[in-house]
Design goal:
Length: 383
């Protein structure tokens, strides 16, 4: 019989992997939320540092800083350089003490948010996340995806806690490009596909320190249900800058349901394939995170040997909302066998989440699944 711990002391810490559920302290979503931001930020501090890129600063940063100042908070800001790299994180972290800031605000997209989380962790300060597009499920998480200065995936940084506050102004989202909402739908759809695979394998969360919870799987499945029910209407309303109930529902699905679902349900092959793409140069890097994830959904379905009914359901949905499902659509129509193996080898590397899939998967398996996903999607388009 295999021992599961120290029978004399009852210490099972060396071999027992617990189920763990984590989430932000507070999630807020509403129209014109930036105008009321101070009431939610004040419990965290009175001198926030806003981190945003130049484009987002003009769209929402100036308004947020003015709103906070009007309501008595002494806000300052720093322009994000564009890459969530350790050099950029260290650069901004050095500025925090000089500004006297007591709270970090990440305002913008995924890489800005990841940088803000890392800066806050480095400084030991609370962090508030204000996404200006719901293009990925990063806002709620206690992890940052770190890249090199050249944009190649480097590593994950995990933190002891999730953001203290996540605040989504749906007026800002309604005025964001439709492509960002569509991208978030692709990222969110992967949540249930991956969580189910992790559940079948009785595997671990992406941080490899704990097992997922049933709550995470339930949230992932609710996320999927919401996408199928409201995505098409929400995309139309986004195009018309309408903050409809459908748009509100998809904002919550892309951000809260998907974020809690992936963190507490687990990641598998889809995101490993996405990270594998960073091994290549070229036009694929003009695609958004969610667009590359969308193709990865097809790859995971092929790796799993999904029944045709399931493959049709997911891939046809992605095609119906305008997300890429073929190699040509992610600018890899001319990818060589060597290119595909570079993707596959990075996706199968030790630090990647593909290991959470049931069974042993090799780079050759991944290359064949990429080819199969492309062929399946092209056939579906022709039907």
């Amino acid at each position: 019989m295999t021992s599961t711990g120290n029978s004399a002391t009852g210490d099972t810490s060396a071999t027992t992997v617990d189920r763990v559920y984590t989430s932000p302290s507070r999630y807020i979503q509403g129209i014109d939320l930036i105008d009321r931001a101070a009431s939610y930020l004040r419990p965290l501090g009175t001198s926030p540092l806003i981190i945003s890129d130049e484009v987002v600063w003009g769209i929402a940063g100036e308004k947020l800083e003015a709103s906070l100042s009007r309501d008595g908070l002494e806000a300052s800001h720093e322009i994000f350089g564009g890459e969530a790299s350790m050099s950029e994180i260290n650069r901004i972290a050095e500025l925090v003490s000089a500004t006297g800031s007591d709270t970090i605000i990440g305002l913008g997209g995924g890489k800005t948010i990841d940088t803000a989380r890392a800066v806050a962790d480095h400084a030991g300060l609370p962090v508030a996340i204000f996404p200006t597009a719901v293009s990925a499920d990063a806002p709620t998480a206690r992890v940052s995806v770190i890249y090199t200065d050249e944009g190649v995936f480097d590593s994950y940084l995990f933190y002891d806690r999730n953001p203290d506050l996540v605040a989504v102004d749906t007026r800002v989202i309604a005025n964001a490009p439709v492509r960002t909402l569509r991208s978030g739908i692709g990222d969110a759809l992967a949540t249930s596909v991956e969580a189910r695979a992790v559940n079948r394998a009785n595997s671990r969360r992406m941080d490899d320190t704990a097992r997922p919870t049933l709550a995470g799987l339930a949230l992932a499945e609710k996320c999927e249900d919401t996408l199928f029910a409201y995505a098409h209407q929400a995309l139309r309303d986004n195009g018309d800058h309408i903050v409809s109930r459908a748009l509100e529902n998809i904002c919550e699905a892309n951000t809260l349901l998907s974020g809690l679902g992936f963190e507490n349900g687990g990641l598998a092959a889809v995101h490993a394939i996405h990270n594998g793409f960073t091994a290549l140069d070229g036009d694929i890097h003009h695609m958004t995170h969610g667009e590359k994830v969308s193709f990865g959904i097809g790859v995971q379905l092929m790796l799993e040997g999904a029944p045709e009914e399931d493959a049709d359901r997911y891939i046809s949905f992605l095609q119906s909302v305008g997300l890429p499902t073929t190699l040509a659509e992610i600018h890899l129509a001319d990818a060589s066998e060597e290119d595909l193996y570079r993707i596959a080898e990075l996706a199968c590397s030790d630090g990647e989440t593909l290991k959470q899939m049931p069974g042993d998967i090799t780079p050759t398996d991944v290359v064949q699944a990429i080819r199969a996903a492309d062929a399946y999607a092209r056939n579906l388009q022709d039907r």
